[in-house]
Amino acid sequence: MNILDKIVAHKKREVDRDKRETTYIELEESEYFHRETYSFRDFLLAEDRTGIIAEFKRKSPSKGIINDEALVKEVTKQYADAGASALSVLTDRNFFGGRKLDLKRARRANTIPVLRKDFMIDEYQIVEAKALGADIILLIAAILTPAEIKNLAALAKSLELNVLLEVHNLEELERSIDTNLDAIGVNNRNLADFTVSVQNSYDLVEHIPSEFLKISESAISDTQTIKDLKKVGFQGFLIGENFMKQADPGKAMQEFVKGL
Ligand SMILES: O=P(O)(O)OC[C@@H](O)[C@@H](O)c1c[nH]c2ccccc12
C-alpha cells in the first residue's frame, strides 16, 4: 500500500464515524450551510490579488512536522492581507494535523474564498465542507473514478461550491474532465511517492481546456517560478510549506509577494 492508499483507507473509516456522529440534517442546520459562497474565479483573477492560494498546513506525510505552533486565525488573516486570492486549509487530522475547526476559524476570520483541503471520497464530506464554511472543494483524480468525480462535482455545484480538480498526469486529466469543474490543479508532487517537479505543470498546461482556471500546486518556493508559470497560462499558485516552514508564515508571505 502506498501512502495514498493508506490515507484513503483511513478516510473511509473516518467518514463512516462522522456520519454516525453528525447527521446530514445537523450539517444543514449549521450557521454556514446557507451562506453565499465566494467565486474562486473572481478572486483568482482580481487585479489587486496575487493568484496565490496560501495554505495552512501543520504537517505532511512527506515532510513530517512543518509548523505546530502557528495559529490558523492569525496566519490566514495575514495571508489574506498579503494578497492571497484564496486560502487552503487542511482538515485531515491523521496525516496533515488539520482540524475541521481550522476551516471554520479561517472562514470566520476572512472574506476571501477558502478551500477545504482534504481527501474527498464521499458525498457526506461535500455537504460537510459547505457546513464548515468552505467555498471550494478539492477532488483528487488519483483517488476517484470518473463517475465519482462527476457525481461529487455535481453535488458540490448544487451547493454553490467551486470545484478544483487535482491531476498529476495526462491520463488523469483526460479521464477526469467534467463540466462541473471550475479549476484544474496540476500537482507538482506525486502523492504516491512524494517526488516533486514543477516541470509537471509545464508539461500539462497545454492540455487543460481553456474554460478551466489553471492552477499549479506544490513545491513553489520562489517568485520567479510564479512569473514563469504565469507566462504559460497559470492563474493560480498553491503554496504551503514555503510559508508554513517559517516561524511566522504570514510574514513570510508578505515578504515573498514583494518579489512578484
Ligand atoms: O507545501 P507545498 O509544497 O507548497 O504544497 C501545497 C499543496 O499543493 C499540497 O499541500 C497539496 C497538494 N495537493 C494535496 C492534496 C492533499 C494534501 C495536500 C496537498
From TrEMBL:
Domain of life: Bacteria
Keywords: Amino-acid biosynthesis, Aromatic amino acid biosynthesis, Decarboxylase, Lyase, Tryptophan biosynthesis
EC number, as in UniProt: 4.1.1.48
InterPro entries xref list: Aldolase_TIM (IPR013785), Indole-3-glycerol_P_synth (IPR045186), Indole-3-glycerol_P_synth_dom (IPR013798), Indole-3-GlycerolPSynthase_CS (IPR001468), RibuloseP-bd_barrel (IPR011060)
Gene3D superfamilies recorded: Aldolase class I
The keyword Amino-acid biosynthesis appears for this protein: yes
Pathway, per record: Amino-acid biosynthesis; L-tryptophan biosynthesis; L-tryptophan from chorismate: step 4/5
Record-annotated Indole-3-glycerol phosphate synthase domain positions: 4-255
Catalytic activity: 1-(2-carboxyphenylamino)-1-deoxy-D-ribulose 5-phosphate + H(+) = (1S,2R)-1-C-(indol-3-yl)glycerol 3-phosphate + CO2 + H2O
Enzyme class: lyase
Amino-acid biosynthesis found in the keyword field: yes
GO molecular function terms listed in the Swiss-Prot or TrEMBL record: indole-3-glycerol-phosphate synthase activity
PANTHER family according to UniProt: INDOLE-3-GLYCEROL-PHOSPHATE SYNTHASE, TRYPTOPHAN BIOSYNTHESIS PROTEIN
UniProt family annotation: Belongs to the TrpC family.
Protein name: Indole-3-glycerol phosphate synthase
Organism of this sequence: Mucilaginibacter pankratovii
Upper classification of the organism: Bacteria, Pseudomonadati, Bacteroidota, Sphingobacteriia, Sphingobacteriales
